[in-house]
Amino acid sequence: MQIPQDFVMEKQILIFKTNVSSLAAKNALLLAIEDRFQVDEANLDLDDIDKVLRLVTEEDPESLLHFIRSLGTNCSELE
């Protein structure tokens, strides 16, 4: 059985600005994301002024934003 082309999601690189400020918070956030979503790569740069979270995934960006915010992390998509 072949999956209709409409349902095939493409991998995308999602880049978010966050307020994560500690290594413990970074590790907890990345673990929570990887437990809940299919993510090929995930990293968060604590040295960047925007505390950039970068994800390579086929997941819906809005679902990820909602989930991250539900954990108490400020998060917005960077363009």
Describe this structure as you would to a colleague.
- By secondary structure, the chain is an alpha+beta fold.
- It is built from 2 helices and 4 strands, in the order βαββαβ.
- A 4-stranded antiparallel β-sheet has the order 2-3-1-4, with helices on one face.
- A hairpin with an 8-residue loop joins β2 (39-44) and β3.
- The chain is globular.
- The chain starts with 11 loop residues before the first strand and ends with a strand.
Describe the protein's topology.
Blueprint: E1 12-18, H1 23-36, E2 39-44, E3 53-57, H2 61-70, E4 75-77
Antiparallel strand pairs: 1-3, 1-4, 2-3
Radius of gyration: 13 Å
Q: What oligomeric state best describes the polypeptide chains here?
A: single chain
Helix/strand order: EHEEHE
Strand residue content: 25-35%
* Low-confidence runs: none
The assigned structural class equals alpha+beta
